[in-house]
Every structure is written in structure tokens, then in C-alpha cells.
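Each field is set out as follows.
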Amino acid sequence: MNPLIVSFICYLVIVIVVGVVTSRKMTTQSEFFLGGQRIPGWVITISERASGESAWLLLGLTGAALTVGLGEVWTVIGCVSGILFLWFFIGARLRREFGRFDALTLPEFLGQKFEDKSNSLRALASLIIIFFFTFYVSAQMVGAGKVLMKTQIVTQDWELVVAGLTLTPKIWGILLGAVIVIFYTLMGGFRAVVWTDLMQGFIMLFALVVLPIIGTMELLEQGGNISQALSHQGAEKASLFSSKPFWPALSLVLGGLAWGLGYMGQPHLLVRFMALPRADEVKQLRWIAASWTILAYGGAFAIGLIGLGLYGGSTFAQDAERIMPTLAMNLLPGWIAGIIISGAVAAMMSTADSQLLVVTSAFSEDFSTRILGRKLSQKQQVRLSRLVTLLIGLFAFVLAVLTSDTVYAMVSFAWSGLGASFGPVILLMFIWPKLNRQGVIACLLTGAISTIVWKLSPLDSWVSHRLAAWVLAVIAAVVATRASHSRN
């Protein structure tokens, strides 16, 4: 059997075993959504990093670096800065603030902190999470399909016609990734997600460190280097500003840096701080997060540039997001390539599982228990959570099959919607004590709506929706808070 396929199957078996084992330790909502806050902090840290960097890091960012060239470095700087700010400046404060309230989810935390007696804030926050995370999970499934097809784990022989419906290799690839993620999220909840994330985080890091090293060696053997590769592809790819005039160049820089703003508003990352046993652990754990981040982002960016040197830009004109699995298959022995490819699928699964869990919690915990007032036993709550996980996973699968967007584009949209809705709330919560319930609701509404409207408008080509929606949400929060105070 193909060594690549053997390595991949071994990875899948381990993931499934983790789901089965952890399911035996999960009997309450606290266990399902936060692991009972008993998981070691260093494990949660790697899980946070793995779940934060999805298919878009190994496929989206590598493909963008190949397409844009050196100008994509602003995205790298923006993301790394956002992660470091989250861990070094507000991480410990987040954990302490979460500890003051009896909340298992972000909507419930906001509802308690801002005294949401009408439950309108909880409902709005839950709806935003469900909407944008469905797109985010779909992006991971699309990424899984691309990798499995490129590596021939799923081949053209898989095409099948059932009841007049053609099941293409793309559909089979998406389905395989979806089934695995939904299975172990259903089985073990947060505990299964975190422990599989730990393994996936190490595999991802291995892929993003080893592949650039091997690629650089191959490039040098061919008598080239990255600098030459960039210059050969033209001035646009060799320039930090893509040889653009002032305003388009500024838009490029701000659009890339704006990725960093979104990290404060990603519920699947914030819940990791909820799950930490103690706030004082953050000071030590942040160095683990920083090291993983710098190595991973540096590696992903390098893969795109190395791909330019080895293959040129035209080779991947149809789909630049194939560069990472192509490098792995062409430069590495089969069994190592299998581990690297597992790293790509790991990136998708480690994000999709976390997002499925957050969407599940938003519906079953916030809507059913808090908003609708359903009184369920612990076992009934867990059963409801599993049912919601299954339904949301199926809906995301259908969306993944129907979409034609790239992983990068889908993640950018979902990232912006969540980041602009919740990010300003988290930041203002610490730097502006006047923020109140009305300001939070205005921020959530503006962040979500402006992301959708701006993304669909021509303005997005001038100012990124990731930046515009975030700024508008901050303004809305401040204006609504001041207006409500003046009325009182």
C-alpha cells in the first residue's frame, strides 16, 4: 500500500481512539464544553494555537504567499501581532474575568457581565456565532477535500452515481474530513477536541518547519534562492508593497495587518482561556504560544515563496492552494509526506472541531437552557449538544459541497464577522469601563452586518472588510454606550 496512505490511516485511527477514550470521561455540560477546567494548561495552549490556525494557514496563506509574493508578509505580521497581543496583554485578564462568572459559553459570559435580563444580547451573540461558524467549518471541509484529492488518497475512481446524484471525488474528500471531525466531537466534546488538537498541533508544526527546510535545500541545489525566485517573477512579487501606487499599497498593508484584530473576537480561541485551570498560568504558557506561532507562520510564508522558486507562479494559476501538498509529495519520502499531509488535514480538523463545539454550545446551552428556559437533566443536555453538533456539521458539509470560494476567502469572511462582532467588546471591556449592554448589542450588530455588506460592496477592494467592520463596530459601541448614558 502507498506509504502516504498508510501514514494517513494511522493518523485517523489515533484520532478516532482519542474520541472513544475521552467519551467515557464526559458526563456533564461543563465536561462537554470546557473539559471540567481540569486539562493541563500547556495542552490547552497548543490546542488554542492548533485550532486558531486552520486550513487557511497551510493552504490559504501558503497559496496567498505564492500568488502575492513578498507583499503577503503584512498578513503574517498582522496575525502574529494579534496572537501575541491576545496572549501577552489580555490573556490573564480574560481568564480572571471569565472566572468571576458561572458561564460555559461566550454569549452567557457577556449576558451575565452586562446584566442581560431580557436575553436579547445572549440571543444575538449566539446567532452571530452560529451563522459565521457555519461558513468557517465549511472552509475546513473544503480544505480537506483539496488535500485528499491532490494526494490521491481520494481518486477519480471514487466517482459514483447514486439515485441520479453524482458523488464526485471532491464530495468524497469533503465527506471523509467531515465524518471524522463530527465523530470525535460527538464522542468526547471539549476533552476530545483538546487532546486531538495537541497531536494535530505538533504535526502541523512539524510540517511547517520541515517542509521549508527541505524546499530551501532543493532550491539551493538547483542553483537558486528565494530572492532570485522573487525577482524572476517580476517586480510585483519582489516588492513589500506589490509595486502598487500609494492608496492600493496602503490598502494592502492595512488589509494584511487587520487580520490581527480578529484574534480577540474568535469564540473558539476565547473558550480556551475559559478552560484554563488558573489565570496565573498564562505568564508561562504565553511563551509556548509565541514560539509555536512564530515558527508556524514563518514556515507557511516560506513555503509559498519556495514554491515560486521551484515551480513559478503559472504552475498553480488554477489553484495556488495546492502548493503545500505538492511540495510534500514531490520532495519527501512517502511516509514522511503522509505525516506532512496529515498535518494539513490536522489543521482543518483542529479548527473545525473547536468551531463545531462552540456552535453547539451557543445553541444547546444558550438558546435551549438560558433563552428558552428548557430544564433538562445533565444527560439530556449532553444528548441535545450531540444532536446539534451533528446537524450543524451536516449543514456545513452541504455548504462546503456547494461553494466555489477558496479556503482563504471563506475564512476571511467568517474571521471578519466574528472578529468585528466580539473583538471590540473584549478590548473595550478592559480599557473602557463605561461600556454597557446597549453598547455591546450595537457592537455585535454592526460588526456582523457591516462585514456582510462591506464584503459584497466595491469598497472591499479599497479597504478590507476585516478592517472596516472592526472600526465601525468600535464606533457603534462607543456611540450607543454614550447615548444610553446620556438618556439616563
About this structure: The first strand starts at residue 160 and ends at 162. The chain has one domain: 3-408. The radius of gyration is 22 Å. The domain at 3-408 is CATH 1.20.1730.10 (Sodium/glucose cotransporter).
